[in-house]
Amino acid sequence: MTISHNLMTTRNSQEPKLRLAVLASGRGSNFEAICQAVDEGRLHGQVVLLISDNENAQALERARKRGIKALYINPQSFASRVEYEKALVRACQEVEADIVALAGYMRLLGKTFLDEYHLKTVNIHPALLPAFPGLHAQKQALDYGVRFSGCTVHFVDEGVDTGPIILQAVVPVYFDDTVETLEARILKEEHRIYPKALQLIAEGRVVVEGRRVRIIGDEHGDQDTQP
Q1: Is 149 helix (H, G, I), strand (E, B) or coil?
Q2: Fewer CB within 10 Å: C terminus or N terminus of the chain?
Q3: DSSP string spanning 24-61?
Q4: Global pTM value
């Protein structure tokens, strides 16, 4: 099955073409990178919503300072995961979000949410998937002794970091690296390629063919793979 993401909308031509909802659980540095890309014209879109499952998340304050709608939706307030995800869906639909971007969101999304936002939910992971999925990816990479690590932007499915890969960036791993130094090097690349991947979606250049993602205009795969 081939799915082409052409999200150019029929809204007023003066409005941004991609409406983004962001889910975050912590400091929101990738949220801020996305917003900066919008400010600088590198991402043709608008961040219309920030949702957190953590009442004290710094991401909520970042959104409020920018005048972006910020919601704390407490999972413990719902009788089930299904009801919680229905609340997430309603919040995203209310702002007419085209894409949902996970930015340090520490919960797995299930069928209830992903049925509504199938191939419209993306995530950034601090490793070169499929290696080192899940939590503490930087520590996993160091413990394994790899020479290179990096980050991956991918579509979200019901697995743990198993969705089709959109973009990846490679960083070297040095012998004297700590988790903190490797994390900082990877984070810099996260902030670069996440907005880039979202812009490719906004341009309608992302095509999913089975597990593979083709970038129109980049059929040879020459994309952000060199350290």
Answers
A1: strand
A2: N
A3: ESS--HHHHHHHHHHHTTSS-SEEEEEEES-TT-HHHH
A4: 0.91
